[in-house]
Amino acid sequence: MEFEYSDTDKWASELSELYSYTEGPEFALNRKCFEDEFSSHVSDKKWTELDAAQHRAHAMRLLDSLEVIVREKRLKVARAILYMTQGTFAECSSEAEVQYWTRYNIFLLLDVGTFSALVELLNMEMDNSAACSSAVRKPAISLADSTDLRVLLNIMYLMVETIQQEDPADKPEWKAMRETFRAELGSPLFNNEPISVTLFGMVTKFCSGHAPHFPMKKVLLLLWKSILFTLGGFEQLQSLKVRKRQELGLPPLPEDSIRVVRSMRAASPPASASDLIEQQQKRARREHKVRALIKQDNLDAFNEKDPYKADDARDDEDDNDDNDNSLETETFPLERDEVMPPPIPHPPSERVSFPKGLPWAPKVSFVGLTERYDTDTVVGLPRPIHESIRTLKQHKYVSIAEIQMAKEEEYQKTPLSGVSTAETHLLFSVFLFPDHQIALLKILLAAAPTSKAKTDSINILADFEYMAQHLVFANCIPLILKFFNQNIMSYITAKNSISVLDFPHCVIHELPELTAESLEAGDNNQFCWRNLFSCINLLRILNKLTKWKHSRTMMLVVFKSAPILKRALKVKQAMMQLYVLKLLKVQTKYLGRQWRKSNMKTMSAIYQKVRHRLNDDWAYGNDLDARPWDFQAEECALRANIERFNSRRYDKSNSNPDFLPVDNCLQSVLGQRVDLPEDFQMNYDLWLEREVFSNPISWEELLQ
């Protein structure tokens, strides 16, 4: 599949993703609201014909009108602003022109302070108890119940998504506004909390059943874009890793993981038992035909006049179909199954190609081990030992996390250490309460394939590393496996969009007569970008939950994840296959020798595509007697460390006052309100005479 993993899809696709097809009639309504407001002040020109000063003046008028008390009037103004963020499409003749005016109008609205006003209105709508109680009593929620919220969230989403899109043609002031807006989104400037915290509150309120009218898709989209904008994406994370390793004095990363993954080619999926049986039947048919031909008396006559030529041509096509199961540039041994006889050897004329090299540099990690012994003195040891030690040291990898854990142990001994107030820490402090994570898991469970009706109640049993442990305790691992326990190819290739109805195509071009052919016109994608993107992200989450955690790896084994993950290998996309193979690699030694023998093609794919750890026995180790409870001490120790970390950095209520930082600013100290005892106030004159007036003070020395 020609899919390149990125933080988001193309900008145009992300804009059209916001709207449901039931919102189509509202485009014309937004236009009418804008034109009514616009014509009352500017009657002889179009919006695209005004100069910058006139644009700004009208934007300020709309912003002032947004603060009116009458709800209907306020909604009408909000729709007019929404039409501006949609590019004033009625005055455009192409989709590119719509995108140009979308960017121009959104930066104009940001400049006049529209986003702050929208956040205030959003908070007001969230606290609308009348709307919440009305929605709870209704048997079914309609689109009209969330009109005000949808309009506000649409504007905010379009602003965040458009502003974060960098364009080389952007003006210098736009670039400065982008960085300022990025800092504001991650700071507690909106209602004393970041905007992402407000949106998480909406998710929690929706999942608790107190606000069923919240448009959750739009909330989640805006939440995703806000976090992505403030914290950065894939590229920013890689740059941050490089810079952090330089600051810590660590050697550079052996390769750029983003480039390696994007350059990898997908492997063919391992053959299933039904595929193997079908292949054997085809070979048996070919052998039967060959034996029938050999029995002919005159082979020369057979060669001149071949009555089976058409059949042979069909056999050649069957051979080509069989070869589709091989790699384009890599070949693996045919996967064997116990019920099948050994395969027939391939003819020597078959072209076999071999990989040029492994994509990843090998590493040596000593996670959980302490180097208490001398690793430098090698006098008297045999030469092979010298070479082994040199190889291990050459590929030894120290991660940033190991350095941070070592520093955390020092901080526990010396608590006088500063706490960062970066956006990441502000957002993480919200997750100290697991309600937000449980709410997101509920939404994921509602979207997972299940035999239960979707109207049934959702129940999840739940009581850094902190988030991962809460997700594990909330049954996130079996939930993700349940998501993949479906026809994953059908899910990824599902057609869930109609090109002719997507924005802005639907407002620029006239809609054709809706037929089966017209609905499929223009949709040439072999897969659904959003579904494939979601599958890769879920696999990455599963990898983060289980990496270097034996108890969680055993959960993969107990929940029989191997056949589910093997079916996911049918998707020929390199990045998705990489994370599936990683999950299979960590549990191979618990699956036993017979499983590895029966899945040699999968083992070969792991060897070729997953990074090697020189001290890892994944390919030959056997630990069939291991059980999940054998590693519970490891999970308990991890939880204790997490609680100490969170208590030291984020729990201000239980902080030791002797370890708190001292305020040395003269203005802030003198500006603090101090409650004095009653007896001190009664004897204040005596205290002044004894402590102030009677003592000589050298003001010059004090000021120095």
Shape: globular
The residue fraction in helices comes out at 55-70%
For the report, how would you describe the main beta sheet?
Answer: none
Number of strands: 0
Rounded to the nearest angstrom, the distance between the terminal CA atoms is 71 Å
Domain Far11/STRP C-terminal: 382-684
Biased composition (Acidic residues): 313-327
Pfam families: DUF3402, N1221
InterPro entries: Far11/STRP, Far11/STRP_C, Far11/STRP_N
Question: What would you say this structure looks like, in words?
Answer:
It is a single chain. By secondary structure, the chain is an all-alpha fold. Helix content is 57%, strand content 0%. The chain has 37 helices and no strands. The radius of gyration is 33 Å and the shape is globular. The chain starts with 10 loop residues before the first helix and ends with a helix. About 11% of the residues have low confidence. Keywords: Cytoplasm, Phosphoprotein. Pfam families: DUF3402 (PF11882), N1221 (PF07923). It is found in: Cytoplasm. One of its GO terms (cellular component) is cytosol. Belongs to the STRIP family.
